[in-house]
Amino acid sequence: SVSDPSNMSVVKETVDRLLKGYDIRLRPDFGGPPVGVGMNIDIASIDMVSEVNM
Prior knowledge:
This protein has 54 residues and is an all-alpha fold.
């Protein structure tokens, strides 16, 4: 399990290695082509629709 104390050091080392040199201020592949980003939005409900409040 990931939360097992004996695995925590391995997980930390892996995450540290993956993020080495990462700069949050730069977008992925900075200097390369634009990165496509997609998303979905699910609306659970719409309530109290009124022309007065639009």
